[in-house]
Specification:
The chain is built from 3 helices and 11 strands, in the order E-E-H-E-E-E-E-E-E-E-E-E-H-H. The protein is an alpha+beta fold. The chain has one domain: Sandwich (Jelly Rolls). A 6-stranded antiparallel sheet has the order 1-2-8-5-10-3, with helices on one face. The chain has a 3-stranded antiparallel sheet with strand order 7-6-9, with no helix packed on it. Strand 1 and strand 2 form a beta hairpin. The protein is globular, with a radius of gyration of 15 Å. The two termini are about 25 Å apart.
């Protein structure tokens, strides 16, 4: 079965969450994880092989609207499910399930509205950029708008590698 083509979402700056001119990418069923003992390790291996192995973590998704203004982020759902709002109040609410991957350009707001008790997410970042955590609104928004355009573009897609859709979609 060929790897999935991502869903593409564009979000405008809403005055609280800057978002990005680059689209959010959602890969539905990027990984077949049923009956695996350690699905987290599978996602981590693929992210690492595709150049997104920087500062990986295993956790959930914060229940408040936040974004990262100085780095892009990949979120791979290893277990469970979550209802996540992307793009701030005027964005889109999507349900993510085990095997899905969300790739967020710097500045893209995200917030878990609901999670299953077994939710396990792998977060990862490409080379270039610096991790930071910003909350929606105020001074953080104003500062973020200035730095987001300078975040380096990744040279590969965390799911599909150097020839993956991200490399074309984020340069179009």
């Amino acid at each position: 079965m060929p790897p999935p083509t991502p869903l593409v979402f564009h979000f405008a700056d809403d005055g609280l969450v800057p978002n990005n001119r680059l689209p959010l990418l959602i890969y539905r069923g990027a990984f077949e994880l049923a009956d695996l003992r350690d699905p987290e390790a599978i996602i981590e291996r693929v992210f690492r092989e595709n150049g997104w192995g920087r500062e990986m973590w295993r956790n959930g998704i914060y229940p408040f609207t936040h974004f990262h203004s100085m780095i892009h982020e990949a979120l791979g759902v290893a277990r469970g499910r979550a209802r996540v709002r992307f793009g701030g109040e005027a964005g889109a609410t999507l349900e993510l399930i085990a095997g899905d991957v969300a790739v967020l350009p710097a500045g893209t707001g995200h917030q878990a509205l609901w999670t299953s008790p077994d939710l396990s997410v792998i977060g990862s970042y490409p080379p270039g950029g610096t991790y930071n955590l910003c909350r929606a609104g105020g001074a953080e928004h104003a500062a973020a708008v200035k730095v987001i355009p300078h975040v380096p573009l990744p040279t590969s897609d965390p799911v599909r590698g150097r020839k993956g859709p991200l490399t074309a979609l984020w340069r179009a």
